[in-house]
Amino acid sequence: MQEDLIDHTQAMWHRSIGALLGLRVILVANIILLTVLGVLFLMSYERPVAFVFAGLAWLAALVLVNLVRFTDPYARPRGKRHRSRRAHVN
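RE: above sequence
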């Protein structure tokens, strides 16, 4: 019973490099799009409304920037990090 639980948790941490790379590309493209959209809002709308729309677009871009770190295909899960070689030396 315990071994089934361990195998299941290891399968949950399997990450597809291609899927994460695709997701990262989409996130970066959306970040660029929202940043440009915020600048266009500032240039084309009247001042009070432009600041609101640009601020919302840039806030959404910041949220996406923070999500990019979760798409690192080489990141290890917290409990699965290997110990350094110095820890093995007596």
